[in-house]
Fold this protein.
Amino acid sequence: MSQQFKAANSEDIILHLLDMMTLVFHRPSGLTHIVADPVPAILEVMQDGASTPSQITAALEKNFDLEEGADVENVVLARLDEMYALGLIERVSE
Amino acid sequence: MGRTYQTSLRVGPATFRIASEWQQPIAQLSSLYENYPKPKGEFADFTVRLESKSFWRKYFRPTVHISGDFWLPDASPLPLSQGLLAAEMGMNLQMALGWRRHLLLHASTVEKDGKALLMTGLSGSGKSTLSAMLGEKGWRFMGDEFALICPQTGMAHSFPRLISLKNEAIAAMERNTPGDRFGPLLEDTPKGSIRHLVPLWESLEASNQPAKPALLIFPRFGYDKAVREIGKSEIFVRLTQASTNYVALGEAGFKALTSFVDNVSARAIDYQSGDEAEELIDQLWAELV
């Protein structure tokens, strides 16, 4: 079974959009992260229930106008690793 | 233990107790801060101590170590002739490391019509000199080192310490400013020559009046005259670097800074002379809605 992820509780993070970047203030750590697309979009679809990389990829493809032929799932996997390292998402044990 | 000389100073909302093993820095401070609002008997927010490292170094080639509520372990001592600078550095250090009532931005600030112009940049960008210059030309000088942003209201509060003029800026300001407002010329300091200038009385008298931040400028001295727009992300990052207490304030700092970035116009300017900078600032100020 594919690894499942869980986004941080919505009350634990504050998202703030600036021009091309989005700020993520992580309340538990007090750290501010500056992230670019597609991280805010991934957080958004995860808040809506998507939890595996495939579900997240499918939700992104449905909700956003993505570049044709882009290897979305690999991009999602790379970003999930980074978001996990920052503490913005958790891995769910099977 | 030898005698301790001391004085209490109030700069904007902050009060300091300065204690020294030598009389000279305290006498200079007392003279230069003579017209500042006096502390009202309350406990000082911070203590700065000017100390010798050993009994002998109090008298023989005396060097001043900066100590106090907050201090840096690797700070180099200064010769006694630069004791005034040591006191000023000590006060800045207390603010940078200890102040929590406001979001503290390393920026100079002047005010006109209730609105504040903030200037921030690296050492040598001219932010201190420009604030001193504008302070003599109809703007209210609010500070050349720290802008204090209230997390609740977003207003800029004044921290009008002595203006620290460096190198070429000293002669430039001496040309048009009465000599009795200057401190002694301090040569061969870690930042070259330094001479302190007392802000105009009107700035000191109004130092408890906040102003609404309206324009943020990133000045750069020594380049052809130009004005550039800057993206909000870059402004945010630069201001986190310019703040000494952004991380310490946590969520309050995040909200104060994002609100500042969203609501304050910002430009980078390059200039070759004070006149050029003044022209650009007047132009940008006039364009504010």
